[in-house]
Q: What sequence folds into this?
């Protein structure tokens, strides 16, 4: 596989990421946030009227969405395969967690890796046949999957398991070891943050490693990649499985954080949200997933004030605008800006 | 005789790569001019440039109108018909539909019907295969089809891109005999690019030699044909 | 037996709808090699316009019907010109994203303008049982009749008129089409207009059955995809046949085998099944891509 190493640097990720100090500060800040918010928010007075706990809950969702978008980015951004159906894997992750907790009294933290593994397997199996399909056909198959999932979850022969239309209510976990210093919302935030740090770290290593280079090679030149001895089916299926696993982990975290799952939360529009996050955040960019998560969590809140339909109209406009004016997403724009600033300094 | 086509300093290329580095040539009304050259010399690109199918710089004047930079559809409407490289057959359509498409821009219906008969008269084989899917025709038949489609425009200028390519010698002779007929009887001017210099010089009155995007020699066909140095160094026979 | 006949006939009525949607998809696919994920939402939005013309504008059904078709045509034409034309040389992903953007916008606009409550859509056909039969109704007969008329008109247009021929030529071989003077861009936009118009017919016919709301076309679009794939995504005739096959199969299977709850999953299985077993569909041509 030495030949593939020679071609890999052409891909955007082969460059060095942002500096380690910046990342460390950023992560530390994220960890400090729940403790700062209750102090800072009252100081801001009337500007932000949100309760600190609700704000923290929203930030937890941002982190969860970022993990899901990162998953989608692995398959779409880095491997060049289109999935319009990642909401389905999010649903599978969420339901796996909810059912494990509801039926088997499984501890909540254990459901997260289990959901990941379940989605890895389901994604790999779905990927194996579906990935023989290219471009549009894969998009079509995953689109169909996303449309069918809510109906499948409501199917009355599995209602005993899924709770049918009613869904499943689960109990929000308290902080472990009887810690009193933080409340349940803050604890969930930390849980999501820790999981996210692990997942992002794994993703960076994945992309820089052998499998990642093979994925990128397939995206950029499938025929050359095959000639170099990369097994297209295996690599593409692996990418799809890993991507599904990420989204499944996010789904499990989402179920725990919201303490409820129901079929109608997992419509095609969830899949489209992830796509919006991916495109707005930036394709083939690790940090883009974070911007994407922020976008799909907060834009609807702002737009909801106008009309129930407004968030989606805005999503649609952003999607089309993104294709025209910022194909590299927010991450790309920020990189450009940094490069300009550096150039200006010299 | 008046100039039908007058090209000055034509540059053209694909993306960043320039293929033609400033060609100057002309074609007289009613004449047949040929551009000869090896593979990759830029012959096809020259024809595509005239038709506005590649980005161009320089002057192209056709029948007194500047056409450089115009859209292909508009250049066609001025009476430039192109028999393209690879024949451009609409493989899913029938032979007759292919031929009829050539007259798409014309509004004189009665004359179109007459032209259809005339074209079938030149190429009776196509008439036999009128209702056949064009993709099933042989290479020679598809070449005839491409010429027929171009003739249906009732063009002032016919651009021919290697009509002998990949065809058996007998069929090549037949096609060239008909091209000569069309030129003499219907006064259609032709710009012909060919690798097969022998046959092209046999029909053309003027010839240009193209080498890697530059014209290196020009003259009447007779002069070029009889000049041993040119023949040996450029035409290779 | 009567019940079975009823299922067959309902299946044909549904099949007519699927055939129309499939045909709209195929038209855009043959011209651009893109699958229009927004086709269903465009049809839904057009149906809302028809509804508004009838309910708010007080127009007669047929006047509103024809007017909606014209509006849908213009809308499709405009979308191609404004949104998709500038993207024609972008990668596939960009175009899929644009389609999804359109889908979302139409869905949101419909909800915004017309509301999310489910609405009844009138049928122009009498409600009395035809010929004293209990196993079919006039709306189903009318649906089959209208779709067949629309399909025949389209067939005649593409086979017999010079414009239809030019549109086919532009779709099959754009470069050669330009060389005979066909304005390929215009033909594409016309194709979009026609596809949108056909979709609007399907939407207005099916809205009486499934009721009108912003999400009404999701399932129908899925069956349209399945029909188009079954018949061969590059073959209009195949797509129509595929539509009727899928319609009948769906109704019969739904009534006797699977139940109606899993309709979308059936479509999913059908889509993936066709893609895996016979990607070219029943009547499509295999396309060999050369390196």
A:
């Amino acid at each position: 596989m030495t030949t593939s190493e020679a071609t890999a640097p052409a891909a955007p990720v082969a460059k060095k990421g942002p500096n380690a100090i910046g990342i460390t500060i950023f992560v530390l800040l994220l960890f400090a946030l729940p403790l700062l918010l209750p102090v800072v928010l009252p100081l801001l007075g009337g500007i932000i009227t949100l309760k600190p706990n609700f704000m923290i809950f929203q930030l937890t969702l941002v982190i969860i969405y970022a993990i899901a978008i990162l998953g989608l980015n692995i398959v779409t951004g880095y491997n060049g395969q289109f999935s319009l159906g990642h909401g389905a894997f999010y649903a599978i992750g969420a339901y796996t967690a909810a059912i494990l907790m509801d039926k088997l009294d499984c501890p909540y933290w254990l459901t997260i890796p289990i959901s990941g593994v379940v989605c890895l397997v389901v994604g790999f199996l779905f990927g194996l046949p579906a990935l023989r399909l290219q471009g549009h056909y894969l998009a079509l198959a995953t689109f169909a999957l996303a449309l069918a999932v809510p109906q499948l979850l409501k199917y009355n022969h599995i209602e005993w398991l899924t709770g049918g239309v009613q869904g499943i209510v689960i109990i929000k976990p308290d902080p472990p070891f009887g810690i009193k210093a933080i409340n349940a919302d803050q604890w969930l935030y930390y849980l999501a943050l820790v999981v996210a740090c692990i997942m992002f770290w794994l993703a960076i290593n994945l992309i820089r490693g052998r499998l990642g280079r093979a994925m990128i090679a397939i995206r950029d030149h499938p025929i050359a990649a095959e000639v170099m001895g990369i097994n297209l089916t295996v690599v593409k299926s692996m990418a799809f499985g890993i991507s599904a696993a990420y989204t499944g982990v996010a789904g499990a975290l989402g179920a725990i954080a919201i303490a409820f799952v129901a079929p109608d939360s997992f419509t095609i529009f969830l899949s489209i949200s992830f796509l919006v996050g991916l495109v707005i955040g930036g394709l083939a960019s690790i940090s883009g997933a974070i911007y994407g998560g922020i976008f799909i969590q907060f834009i609807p809140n702002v737009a909801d004030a106008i009309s129930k339909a407004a968030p989606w109209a805005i999503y649609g406009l952003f999607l089309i605008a993104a294709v025209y004016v910022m194909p590299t997403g927010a991450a790309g724009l920020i990189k450009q800006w940094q490069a300009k600033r550096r150039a200006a300094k010299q | 005789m008046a100039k039908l086509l007058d090209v000055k300093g034509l540059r053209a290329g694909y993306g960043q790569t320039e293929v033609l580095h400033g060609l100057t040539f002309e074609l007289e009304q009613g004449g047949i001019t040929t551009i000869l050259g090896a593979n990759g010399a830029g012959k096809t690109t020259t024809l595509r440039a005239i038709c506005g199918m590649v980005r161009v710089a320089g002057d192209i004047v056709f029948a007194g109108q500047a056409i450089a930079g115009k859209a292909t559809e508009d250049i066609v409407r001025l009476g430039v018909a192109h028999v393209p490289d690879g024949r451009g057959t609409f493989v899913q359509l029938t032979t007759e539909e292919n031929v009829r498409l050539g007259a798409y821009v014309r509004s004189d219906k009665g004359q179109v019907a007459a032209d259809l008969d005339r074209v079938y008269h030149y190429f009776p084989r196509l008439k036999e295969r009128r209702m056949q899917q064009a993709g099933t025709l042989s290479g020679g038949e598809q070449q005839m089809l491409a010429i027929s489609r171009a003739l249906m425009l009732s063009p002032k200028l016919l651009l021919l891109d290697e009509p002998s390519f990949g065809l058996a010698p007998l069929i090549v002779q037949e096609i060239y005999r008909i091209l000569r007929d069309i030129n003499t009887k219907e006064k259609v001017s032709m710009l012909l690019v060919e690798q097969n210099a022998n046959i092209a010089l046999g029909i053309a009155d003027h010839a240009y030699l193209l080498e890697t995007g530059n014209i290196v020699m020009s003259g009447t066909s007779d002069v070029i044909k009889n000049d041993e140095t040119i023949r040996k160094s450029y035409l290779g026979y | 037996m009567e019940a079975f006949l009823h299922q067959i006939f309902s299946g044909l009525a549904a099949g007519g709808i699927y055939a129309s949607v499939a045909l709209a998809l195929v038209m855009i696919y043959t011209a651009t090699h893109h699958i229009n994920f927004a086709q269903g939402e465009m049809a839904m939005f057009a149906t809302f316009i028809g509804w508004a013309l009838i309910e708010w504008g007080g127009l007669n059904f047929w006047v509103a019907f024809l007017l909606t078709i014209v509006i849908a045509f213009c809308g499709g034409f405009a979308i191609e010109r404004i949104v998709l034309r500038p993207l024609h040389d972008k990668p596939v992903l960009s175009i899929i994203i644009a389609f999804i953007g359109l889908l979302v916008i139409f869905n949101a606009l419909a909800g915004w303008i017309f509301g999310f409550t489910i609405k009844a859509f009138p049928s122009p056909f009498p409600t009395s049982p035809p010929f004293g039969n209990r196993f079919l109704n006039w709306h189903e007969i009318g649906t089959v009749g209208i779709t067949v008329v629309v399909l025949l008109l389209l067939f005649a247009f593409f086979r017999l008129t010079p414009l239809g021929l030019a549109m086919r030529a532009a779709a099959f071989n754009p470069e050669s089409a330009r060389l005979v003077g066909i304005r390929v861009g215009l033909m594409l936009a016309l194709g979009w207009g026609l596809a949108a118009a056909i979709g609007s017919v399907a939407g207005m016919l099916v809205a009486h059955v499934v009721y009108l709301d912003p999400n009404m076309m999701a399932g129908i679009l899925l069956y349209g995809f399945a029909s188009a794939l079954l018949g061969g995504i590059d073959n209009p005739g195949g797509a129509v046949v595929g539509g009727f096959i899928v319609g009948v199969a769906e109704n019969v299977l739904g009534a006797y085998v699977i139940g109606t709850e899993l309709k979308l999953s059936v479509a999913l299985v059908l889509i993936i099944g066709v893609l895996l077993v016979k990607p070219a569909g029943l009547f499509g041509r295999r396309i060999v891509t050369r390196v």
